[in-house]
Amino acid sequence: MWSPTEQEKYGVALASFRGTVQNGLPLEIGDTVQILEKCEGWYRGFVLKNPNAKGIFPSSFIHLKNAHIKNKGQFETVVPTEDTVITEMTSTLRDWGNMWKQLYVKNEGDLFHRLWHVMNEILDLRRQVLVGHLTHDRMKDVKQHITARLDWGNEQLGLDLVPRREFSMVDPDDLSVTELYRLMEHRHRKKETPVPASTHHLFVHMKSLMSSNLGEELEVFFYIYDSREGRPLSERFFVKLNKNGVPKSPEKTERQCTLFVDLGSGDLRKDVYIIVHIIRIGRMGAGEKKNICNVQYRRPFGCAVVSIADLLTADSKDDHLLKVYTCNTESDWNQIHENIIKKVNSRYNLSGSNTGLAVALQLLHGDIEQLRREYMAIFTRGVSITRKLGFSDVIMPGEMRNDLYITLEKGEFEKGGKTVARNVEITVYALDEDGQILRGYVAAGSGEPGTDEYHSFVLYHNNSPRWSEQIKLPIPVDMFRGSHVRFEFRHCSTKDKGEKKLFGFAFVPLMQEDGRTLPDGTHELIVHKCEENANLQDCARYLKLPFSKANLPGNNQAVKATKESFWITSFLCSTKLTQNGDMLDLLKWRAHPERISDSLTKLKDIDGFEIVKFLQDTLDTLFGILDESAQRYGLKVFDCLVHIINLLQDSKFQHFKPVMDTYIESHFAGALSYRDLIKVLKWYVDRIIEAEHQEHIQQVLKATEYIFKYIVQSRRLFALATGGQNEEEFRCCIHELFMSIRFFLSQENIGPSPITHTQAVFLRTFPVVYGELLKLFTVREVATFVRETLGSLPSTTQADCPLEAVKLQCIAKTVESELYTNPESRCILLPVVLRLLQAHMQEQKDLVMCGHIVTSMLSLIKREDTEPSASEEVDLIVDSLLSVLLRTILEISNRPQSTVGTMRLQVQDVTGEFVACLLALLKQMKDKHYQQLLQSFTSKDELKDFLLQLFTVFRILIRPEMFPKDWTVMRLVTNNVIITTVLYLSDALRKNFLNDKFDYKVWDSYFYLSVMFINQPCLQLETFSASKRKKILEKYGDMRVMMGCEIFSMWQNLGEHKLNFIPAMIGPFLEVTLVPQPDLRNVMIPIFHDMMDWEQRRSGNFKQVEAKLIDKLDSLMSEGKGDETYRELFNSIIPLFGPYPSLLKKIERETWRESGISLIATVTRLMERLLDYRDCMKLGEVDGKKIGCTVSLLNFYKTELNKEEMYIRYIHKLYDLHMKAQNYTEASYTLLLYDELLEWSERPLREFLNYPMQNEWQRKEYLHLTIIQNFDRGKCWENGILLCRELADQYESYYDYRNLSKMRMMEASLYDKIMDQQRLEPEFFRVGFYGKKFPFFLRNKEFVCRGHDYERLEAFQQRMLNEFPHAIAMQHANQPDQTIYQAEAQYLQIYAVTPIPDSQDVLQRDGVPDNIKSFYKVNNIWRFRYDRPFHKGTKDKENEFKSLWVERTTLTLVQSLPGISRWFEVEKRELVEVSPLENAIEVIENKNLQLRTLITQCQTRQMPNINPLTMCLNGVIDAAVNGGLARYQEAFFVKDYMMNHPEDGDKIGRLRELMFEQAHILEFGLTVHEKFVPQDMRPLHKKLVDQFHLMKSSLGIQEFPAYVRASPINFPNGSPRSGRNSMPNILSPEGGRVVPRRSPLSYPAVNRYSSSSLSSQASNEVSNITGQSESSDEVFNMQPSPSTSSLSSNHSASPNVTSSAPSSARGSPQLSEKHKHTRENSCLSPRERPCSAIFPNPVDPTQRPVPHPAGDASLPRSDPNISNPDKVVKPAPSSWSLDTPLSDSVGKLVCPPVPPRPTYSGSPAKNIRSQSPGPTSRSPQKNSAPPFTPSPTECQSAGLVANSPVLSGSYSSGISSLSRCSVSEASGTEAPSTDHALPTSASSGSDELFRKENKTPPPYSVYERNNPRRPVPLPHSLSIPPPSADAPPIPPKPHQLRGSKPDVDPRRLEQPPRPRPLPRKVSQL
Q1: Which 8-state DSSP code applies to residue 517?
Q2: CA of 1899: how far to CAs of 1116, 1890, 1925, in Å?
Q3: Which of 981, 1030, 1482, 1775 has the CA that lies 20 to 30 A from 44?
Q4: What pLDDT shows up at residue 1218?
Q5: 818-840, pLDDT tens digit by residue?
Q6: What is the rounded distance in angstroms from the CA atom of residue 233 to the CA atom of residue 1932?
Q7: Which of 1237, 1183, 1260, 1179 is closest to 1214 using CA atoms?
Q8: pLDDT tens string 1045-1087
Q9: How far is CA 561 from CA 112, 549, 564, 565, 937, in A?
Q10: Does residue 1063 have a cis bond before it (omega within 30 degrees)?
Q11: How crowded is residue 796: how many other Cβ atoms within 10 Å of its Cβ?
Q12: In whole angstroms, what is the distance from residue 30 CA to residue 94 CA?
């Protein structure tokens, strides 16, 4: 049976458990588990990392650990009872583990590896702690190391700063807020501002000397040198090198490494250098041959110098290679380093180009103990210490040192009978008083052990040598007396023997007779002559001799006159010996009583270091004199004591204070001294007021602390010795002393007077006296002393008086003292402390100190909160400081920041401290305190001011910048205090400020605070890790929900006052509901219903609510708030908070439910788009998605929400995206939307976005110029021209001819670019996005996209797949079913489509250059077509054309391309089927059109060579000869077909005509070909002529029918006369006859369509205007294929129309490579795929024309169902929207002019939309060149999906709803005929005569015909309308060309109207 566990609560899994049993809980080794129940060897519980999954597991798998249980019961929490550092380490490492893996994912490799090493290091340290074998000190070091590593990792990962005390985390509940703040600040300061080290050390590692002329051993000396003072700063470091230049003892690192210690910050200057002297040991001359003798001399070698300042910037790890210099003259050796520093180049030079000293130099900072911890490796392997000459800046007590440094300066010697100067060597010995050599006490420097003697280096032939060699004599103090140093001088012979002959000596004793040591400085020693055999062993003989010339008696002139002298400099660095005689006199005062007075007086002049060296002896002397002669010397002794006490205040000697404390406690024996000390001190205090000079008195008061220490200790010793006698007398003396002190403190002074400074000096030292007084007096007595003393201070002083600051410092020390800590004394001191504190805070003075004081006070209250007095203290502090604290925080926060961008909380900034004080005070307040506080307000206004102040301060506290980013602990404590306080004060708000006492300001402040509180980043638990979230919820709960419930409660209490907060609080409340906390949302969303209801009551609608909701929603969601869950919740019907139903349910019950539900739907749709927009705008998303999403949102704001400002903002966001993606044309169209909203007026506009304040005209001008520039960059020059004209008209109306001229020139330049520059025609692709995983603006929609330049289907497909990496490419072109639509996936369906241009009048007009036509082929395109061939019925294997149908899909977009996006949504799909006969007609029509074009190009010399024409003729004739046209005859001209399809009689006739016409064109083409064919191609031409005759015979043509012979062979680009060159008229085959009329086959887009039935591989590229041809092999080697049409060769079949191969073989991926499509075919490219006619909607069958008899000039020769201006067809009433009826007479043909300027509402391109669809559409086709011709449906398997920008198709066609620009309304209806109507396409008969003569192409615009032109004959087929009598209107803008759709069919006219238009002007934008 399962039973709850009592002790077994926490454990760790020892092994992994799979959990395969029923209800088993899987465990991994190391998992920590909490155990709930146990039963027979099994436990039930959960893993702590996943507490929701509970199960059972074997108890044997668990190692139990002791744990502490909190909240025992259902919600108990188990905390292991282990070291807190271990607990923190474990949880932190778990958190790091997940983040560490993410670092790898984010490619942050450096931090990843560093963190890995730190984690391993922490784990290793954790093992050491857990083992428990560490010593106490080692454990402390390990824990410190662990916490340092944890803090480093937390900082690197952006985690929270952990408050710690002694390495352990603290619980914020266990200490006051002020203590917590101090801990956090201390850790923050420690992290941010490391204290600069005052002590520095130089590490030197001698590596080697590199030189080519080595061969002798070397000695290297390093020392630090001050060039400013010209003296060394340190002793020397000595390294011996062998003959190879490396250290002699490499295994002994201490002999090659040293640490120059105790350098001060002042020593790191540019003029402080490291000097390296190198001495060689060998022969006298470096180049001498080896002598027989082995005598070796120390000789100068070289010197190197480096500045210490260079090491501050150099990389410490780099080795330095120092250049070595030698002196030119050996006598300058002693100053070579000076010459190098001063760069006296004449005195030294490099010792060799390859000589260098390799040495490692590194500056280390901090005290020596710190270095031992941080650089353990240096000290472990061994390093010598090289000391500073003298003591360091800070002298530590107990430091033992007794070093005598002697520098061998120079000598003056006689020749001694020699002809040349001597080679002098000095030998130095240290000897004791017995003459015995002191062994090992002569050292050349650190690094090498001391020796018995020292030999100087030798200067060659120099009687005045200068050595400047320093040696060190570390002689012990006890050997110092009687010791001396002897210097022996020898001449070193350079002869073979190499003798060293002694010729003199000198000596110097180390201590004088009176006990003083050898004084520091230079000494001139006497050189006593002697011989080699002189007995110097008996030192007693020469010690009697004089040693220094300075010490000689005056009568000894003989010795003084001697020329030989030797100079040394001595320097003693000793902690025990002195050179000061006055010090010795004082210490020996009993021997010379008469000198006591002088000695006491001279004590002040003795160097402080001499005093502290003998501190205890000096103090004993002073108190001994005081005891024996108090009356005589009492004052002087007191002054000397004051001098010594103040000496210890100096930073250099402050470390000796503990020495004095120890002396007082242990060695002081002056039991009677207290009387004299009190007496003298009172005497000084009583003299303060009368004294003129206060300096000495101030020195006395500075020493008050130690004077009281001596007084107290003396009294204690006296009481101990006498049993407490004279106690009353002592107390009386102390009281009198304090009375004197209070009297002088109470003196008020105007301005800073000397007494004021004296008062300040006393107050600084007064608090330290408390502790001493407590040794003799009770706590209450001392507290009374302090209260009376502080209370005696003058209350009012001057603002600049220094006493004010000192008062606060005294208060601060008082509060921090032991006295204040005691609750018994605190109640006595608190009133006076609060009085002084309140006065300062009210005047806003010394706030930093005030903050420290309040912090200390409140920290004590927390610790004592169980005491009954604590509540009274809180009352006192609340009364005195609460309002002052609030006001102070407000004033500090409102001050301007001195440094922009710095954190608000700095170390010196006091705001944080006051905030902590306020929070601590509020946290201590209970119900009683709040009641007393609220009752203390006498009026409602006072309460209101208090609440407003408090709410404002709370808003300041929750600002993100209030605390550093990683202070989450502090923020949570702050929020807990705030919400507690707000809950207390809510009742006061309801009681005092509701109903008739309602105050909007207080309530508004309350709501504003609540909203800010909920939206704080530190409370958004969803962003935290699971462990952190769990800790916060356990400790504080979700404070957002608590505050949300309080908001809801307060809102419900408002009643009718809610109207005051509508719409102001809509935005803030909406922001709250966007917080992703379900409970909070459930609470807050019903408030919106309340707002709508009250607004409905007030104004009958809730437009204000709607407007505010929508505006705020955009800004909030763009900031990243809100999610899909929120959108669903807002629109759901699930019940929300408690009994409250959902928002929709509540609205449905209201009378205004329709408008309410509409609002909810609108907001939901807006949220969908905003969420998509936010997702798309994320970093890394492709531009296409961003653009499409922005378009969707922009349209929504315009069409559904009517928000002009938001609409304009998103216009500019879209514009920026286009510019970034270099979509210049789309960018222009986008900016045009804003341009349309503006007028040419002088209305002033405010500053908006990046636009300055300007009038409307200026902004519109700027926009025009920007749009023109972008149209130019996008090569959309025609649109730019229109804007140029509009701008030019404006300039002209203002007579601004300068700008008018520029604009006309710009317009002209655009015309030039149209004619001169090449433009690429883009491909168009249809893309379907299916599946629920797509964003809303794409989901289950289809779009047509305009591809990039040179982008074909494969590239587009790949781009789309890159944009949607999870999408699946659909391999067919069929419409998907519902399963695809509803799938939780992404499906992409992509295939190429063909544009259907609207501007047919331009494309069909003769003489218009191709580079003009090319623009209209691919611009302003609304409709696109896609053809899919299929077989209907039984397929005839012999002739597949009998059953080959074409399924033609026409897509109509919501807006034309190009536009504001590269793609738009498909608005309408139309599907028609083209019969085999109609298909054949289209194929032949297109081929005829292609032939005409090539012939024209050949005639007008537009082709560089004749090859394209050759190949096309060859392809058509060859196909026809091989049975091409015959297959059509077999299929459609047989009786069976005619009988089965009697309705196709007209079409059969039309096909026959086209076949004859093709033969006629071919005959003419051969004539032209014969004229231009080169000689080497004549055989081919002859072959073509022969085959053409065969073709005629196969068709049964002997002679062309009359109507064929009479028909013209006009070409799309006009007759030759209309070309650029003056050419003769195109001749008919008979020659000499002018072509009478235009051919009805003048189709546009010649270069985009090709035929497949009459083409070959050679003709595939003919249709391309570049004229590229295939190789001749492919042209002439064509084999018939049984699977292709009989009308084509193997190379000529079209994949879309003519393919009859079985579906299993059509381009499937299983086919071999040789049978697969080329790229063009497999991608269904429109260039290689058969396409439909330009006009896809055929005429209704009832309107089909009757076949014309042969020879009829008006016989239609093209598609009879197309309203072509060249066809004289009587249209249906709705086919033409021009008012002028068409003429019925033959030959009067309509040809509208080129239309860039006006928009022809009645152009043929637009009439077609009104015709009903039928099965007889026509399809002009292009060539294709596949070796195998499968069906296009199957082609797609090769890859239909590519990559493309994702653009929205939801843009409404009603762009101009925001503009006043006039747009033609005749987009599907007839335009009324008015006087100023645009010219019609029909013309009168009189004009016809003129047109027959004139062959000039029409002008660009019909309005430019006013200028007279030279009459040139025109072809009679051209019809030019008469010029308009009125001035032309302003031409339409490009958007109007886009905005006017082709005429739609009547069904479309019945569609519901567009959404509401936007009013003309909403804002001054």
Answers
A1: B
A2: 55, 16, 17
A3: 1030
A4: 92
A5: 888 888 888 888 888 888 888 87
A6: 91
A7: 1183
A8: 999 999 988 888 888 888 888 888 888 888 888 888 888 888 8
A9: 81, 10, 9, 10, 101
A10: yes
A11: 7
A12: 11
- The Cα–Cα gap between 891 and 1384 comes to 58
The burial class, CB within 10 Å (0-12 / 13-18 / 19+), for 1840 is: buried
**Residue 1864, amino acid:** S
> Per the structure block, which two tokens stand in for 1346?
């305009």
| pLDDT recorded at residue 1911 | 40
Per-residue pLDDT reduced to its tens digit, 31-56: 889 999 999 899 999 998 888 889 99
- Residues paired with residue 225 on neighbouring β-strands, in sequence order: 232, 273
Those residues whose C-beta lies under 8 Å from the C-beta of residue 1092, and which sit 6 or more positions away, are 1102, 1105, 1147, 1152, 1156, 1159
Q: How far apart are CA 324 and CA 220, in angstroms?
A: 12
Above 60 in pLDDT, residue 1834?
Answer: no
d(CA 868, CA 870): 5
Q: How high is the pLDDT of residue 1840?
A: 32
CB 1437 within 8 A of CB 1692: no
| φ and ψ at residue 23, rounded to 5 degrees | 60, 20
891 CB contacts (<8 Å, ≥6 apart)?
844
> Tell me: the pLDDT tens digits for 920-932?
888 888 888 888 8
Residue 588 has pLDDT above 90, yes or no: no
Q: CA-CA distance, 512 to 528, in Å (whole number)? A: 21
Look at residue 1689 and give its three-state secondary structure: coil
Cβ(447)–Cβ(488) below 8 Å: no
Q: What is the pLDDT of residues 133-151, one digit of tens each?
A: 878 878 888 888 888 899 8
In 1265-1402, the DSSP E strands lie at 1324-1330, 1341-1346, 1368-1369, 1387-1396
Higher pLDDT, 1671 or 1407: 1407
Q: Which two tokens stand for residue 1449?
A: 């899909």
Are the beta carbons of 1561 and 1488 closer than 8 angstroms?
yes
**CA–CA gap between residue 1321 and residue 1711 (Å, rounded):** 32
Question: Counting beta carbons within 10 angstroms of the beta carbon of residue 1436, is it exposed (0 to 12), middle (13 to 18) or buried (19 or more)?
Answer: middle
Tell me the β-bridge partners of 431: 437, 484
**CA–CA distance, 1615 with 1897 (Å, rounded to integer):** 10
Secondary structure, 3-state, 1588-1651: HHHHHHHHCCCCCCHHHHHCCCCCCCCCHHHCCCCCCCCCCCCCCCCCCCCCCCCCCCHHHCCC
**Site of tokens 């060689």:** 280
Question: Which residue type is seen at 1714?
Answer: K
Q: What is the pLDDT of residues 451-493, one digit of tens each?
A: 999 999 999 888 889 999 999 999 888 888 889 999 999 888 8
Tokens 């194929």 sit on residue: 1483
The pLDDT > 90 percentage for the chain reads 22
In 3D, which of 1311, 1314, 1191 has the Cα closest to residue 1849? 1191
- First CA to last CA across the chain, in angstroms? 78
Residue 1252 has, within 13 A of its CA and on its CB side, a CA count of 3
The residue written with tokens 């490009």 in the block is: 1934
pLDDT band at 1939 (very low <50, low <70, confident <90, very high): very low
| Pairing outcome for strands 453-455 and 3-4 | unpaired
Cα separation, 1350 vs 1074, in Å, equals 46
Q: How many CB atoms lie within 10 A of CB 315?
A: 7
pLDDT digits over 96-112, tens only? 888 888 888 888 888 99
Residues 1555 and 1559: their CA atoms lie apart, in Å, by 6
Nearest to 659 by CA among 698, 618, 700, 604: 618
